Amino acid sequence: MPYKNNVLTLEKHEYGLTHVSDLGEFYFTSDAIIHTYSRHSNYSFIINEIPRNEINTFLKVASQIGAYIIFPGNVVNKKQTINSARGFHPRIYDRFDLTLECIRLYYSGIITKVENPLGEVLLRYDDFFKLFSDFKGYCDFFLLQDLTKESFTKINFFIPFNGFSTKPRPSSVDEYKVYMENSINFIRKRNNRIIEYNKMKLK
């Protein structure tokens, strides 16, 4: 891994962060890991069936530090960034677990559209992903271990995943509850990893 002890020196730049070193020059923007879909009017048929206090808890957790990550924010060849592509792709719909599966496939050399919906856009930022050497390095750096299993060979999906032909958003109240519970559990675990990492750095 290129960053000793996960240290990445960043400077504020307009609405993002920059890093300049022997490793290269990188511009980053933040992106939300969790989306509640609670403000989508066409999703109200599910949201209205969930107690409001549960939705409020979900929204609160989705706003915590563990619910955010950075991606390269520079536009390459006037094409979509990773943030934009994963938000607008109909087989991803801003799901971070599905995004992470695309990243896992990318590190495995699978980038075709059929097998990896985000393969092409990830390839545009190959210099960024090479910094972490492999998928494990990427997950370790960003403290995403709890979203993986079986030695980083599989993803802990928020809801059952049967390939990218599966509808990305929960399609029933019961499925949404599973999505909500698993999302909250992951963010809380990542929050704890961030806390433990900071304690280690302060020693």
Overview of the structural elements:
With 203 residues, the protein is an alpha+beta fold. It has one domain. Helices cover 39% and strands 13% of the residues. It is built from eight helices and six strands; from the N terminus they run βββααβαααααββα. The strands form two sheets. It has a four-stranded antiparallel β-sheet, with no helix packed on it. It is globular. The relative contact order is 0.14. The N terminus is likely disordered.
Task: Give the topology, please.
Elements (H helix, E strand, L loop, with lengths): L10 E3 L2 E6 L2 E9 L11 H4 L4 H10 L6 E5 L9 H7 L7 H12 L11 H6 L1 H4 L5 H7 L6 E2 L4 E2 L17 H30 L1
Antiparallel strand pairs: 1-2, 2-3, 3-4, 5-6
Please give the order of strands in the largest beta sheet: 1-2-3-4
Q: State the distance separating the first and last CA atoms.
A: 22 Å
Major sheet size, sense and barrel closure:
4 strands, antiparallel
Helix-strand makeup class: alpha+beta
Helical percent range? 25-40%
Question: What order do the SSEs take from the amino end to the carboxyl end, as H and E?
Answer: EEEHHEHHHHHEEH
Rg over CA atoms: 17 Å
Sheet-strand content, in percent, reads 5-15%
Low-pLDDT stretches are 1-8
Mean pLDDT: 91
- Backbone shape: globular
Q: Helix count?
A: 8
Taken together, the total number of domains comes to: 1
Number of strands: 6
Which oligomeric state applies? single chain
